[in-house]
Amino acid sequence: MLDETKLFDFIKILFTKPKLYKNISNRNKKRHQFMINRFFSIKYPANAQLFNINGINGSAVIDSWSMVASRFKAVPGWIYTRTKKAKKVATKKNEYIPKDTTIKLFMDNNEIGKREFSELEHFAKVELYSSLKKLEESMEMY
Questions:
Q1: pLDDT digit of tens for each residue in the chain (142 aa)?
Q2: What are the extents of the domains in the chain?
């Protein structure tokens, strides 16, 4: 059973169950007004901006969006947006740490100093470390 107090259950009711939507209290409509307006702003930014007024009746805003939602047969994909996933924290096992001899040889070959090397490490770490890894592998071969 769908729980109208939970946001995504409320969205499912809004898009797919108009009879059940009519029985939802104004209090629960007001509860979800901000997030519903935010989701609809993905597809309808101008309309959402007009509803973005302090003191506006939240249940009336949701009723307006329900008229828009009645055009859809199911919950559209643009409602479910993803957030950025946190980057994996590098552990000592999978993190490449170049040897000092490799760094020295790289700096000598490219005629750069410590400052330029640290800037490379800061701004282009992936490319730098891939070059260092290739250099280190070639050093081990010979």
A1: 788 889 989 999 999 999 999 999 999 999 999 999 999 999 999 999 999 888 899 999 999 999 999 999 999 988 876 666 766 665 666 778 888 999 999 999 999 999 999 999 999 999 999 999 999 988 887 6
A2: 7-79, 100-141
